[in-house]
Design a protein that fits this description.
The protein is mostly beta strands and 371 residues long. The chain contains two helices and 25 strands. It has helices spanning 7-27, 202-205, and strands at residues 45-50, 58-65, 78-84, 95-99, 105-110, 126-132, 138-142, 157-161, 167-171, 179-187, 190-197, 210-221, 229-245, 249-251, 253-259, 262-267, 272-276, 291-295, 302-307, 313-317, 322-326, 336-337, 345-350, 357-361, 366-370. The strands form six sheets. Strands 10-11-12-13-14 form a five-stranded antiparallel β-sheet. A hairpin with a 5-residue loop joins strand 4 (95-99) and strand 5 (105-110). The termini are far apart. Residues 1-34 have low confidence and may be disordered.
């Protein structure tokens, strides 16, 4: 018995075939003519503000844009976390600064390790893991050291602050072990966090690479009346290479960004971008450090990662100070040289005001804008 195919099914089939051809083209590094790089429209880097607060913290790492006006938070401002103290000891920074698009800097929070309301093994050393949750709560990762050396690094925690910068709780446990970077997906009063961890076996192994880096997914419910509730921590990907470093403290999976259900991870040690499909609903961890999207090429130690408005993946190179745009199918466009040089870049985010990309410069301790 023959069956007819509806017009809708036929169009769907043709669309799927076209998508396969498109994916095949990109997998060979071929950018289609109608696909233009997001950063290709920009040519100028402008200093926005210093990231150094009054206590002298340096080495800006994390950056996130404030989505709504709540408490001390102002929509469109940037929050930036500092990893080092005034002596430049890594893993000892305690401050988050807030910077307006016009360049005015203020202190959002200075976190006292001695007064935390819950456990945070090792204390406070604020990392690139920085997100804003519904109802104005802010989450920041801590990978602390006692003297700036990797040998003293401890598991740390996630620190939760309210919209005035007051710490309200900490999140710790066996699956939070050196939270290095983070992204949040928000829906109503709820959110899902994706956190990379870089201390699983690295302190014991020293500068010998160990493939134990993880990505953890955590569900969050927020309310105006009580602190957020964090549930269901699950490892959704593992096997990322990581090691300690005399210069960078730790090298491992860093920036993360979610698009169309796929989580993209900047694998710094592997010099590649990895993908974790079905990241929101995955039940079993994806091993082997995820699926390789792009490796080497223009990538040179990718650290920070964010998703551009066109769906491309933006990464910040540790090795040369370049911003690299990569399609989800692995095609790389000509990178932009920020002038920061090796060791200058870390976190980055797309501007929500004027078109551009905000990024932190660790060497000059400032927030810059590519526009």
């Amino acid at each position: 018995m023959s069956r007819s195919i509806s017009r809708a099914h036929l169009l769907g089939l043709l669309g799927a075939i076209a998508a396969l051809f498109t994916a095949a083209a990109f997998s060979q590094g071929i950018a289609l003519a109608f696909d233009h790089p997001f950063i290709g429209q920009f040519s100028t880097v402008t200093k926005v503000a210093s990231t150094v607060p009054s206590n002298g913290d340096v080495n800006p790492y994390g950056i996130v844009t404030v989505p709504n006006n709540v408490g001390s938070l102002v929509r469109g401002d940037e929050l930036i976390s500092n990893f080092n103290n005034e002596k430049n000891h890594q893993g000892t920074g305690t401050t988050i600064v807030q910077i307006t698009p016009g360049g005015k800097q203020s202190l959002f929070a200075q976190i006292n390790p001695g007064t935390l309301p819950g456990p945070c093994p090792g204390g406070v050393g604020l990392t690139t893991a920085l997100s804003v949750l519904p109802n104005g709560y802010v989450v920041v990762g801590s990978l602390p050291t006692s003297n700036g050396m990797a040998e003293t690094a401890q598991a740390g925690c996630l620190i939760v602050l309210d919209s005035s910068g007051k710490v309200v709780e900490t999140i710790s446990g066996p699956q939070i072990n050196g939270p290095w970077d983070m992204t949040a997906v928000v829906y109503g009063d709820d959110a899902t966090l994706f956190v990379t961890n870089v201390l699983n076996g690295t302190v014991e192994s020293g500068e010998t690479v160990t493939e134990k880096g993880t990505v953890v997914r955590i569900q969050v419910h927020t309310s105006q009346h009580h602190a957020p509730v964090f549930t269901d921590p699950d490892i959704i990907a593992n096997g990322f290479p990581e090691r300690t470093s005399g210069e960078a403290l730790v090298v491992g999976p860093t920036g993360v960004g979610l698009d169309q259900g796929t989580l993209y991870v900047a694998d710094t040690q592997g010099n590649r971008i990895a993908a974790v499909p079905d990241a929101l609903f995955r039940r079993a961890p994806l091993g082997g450090g995820g699926i390789t999207v792009a490796k080497a090429g223009f990538l040179n130690g990718p650290l920070g990662l964010t998703i551009a408005p066109n769906g491309d993946i933006l990464t910040a190179n540790a090795g040369d100070g370049n911003l690299v745009e990569t399609t989800p199918f692995g095609a790389e466009f000509q990178p932009f040289d920020t002038g920061a040089g090796a060791g200058g870049l870390f976190g980055l985010t797309v501007s929500t005001g004027r078109p551009g990309v905000y990024f932190v410069n660790d060497l000059t301790n400032e927030l810059d804008l590519l526009h």
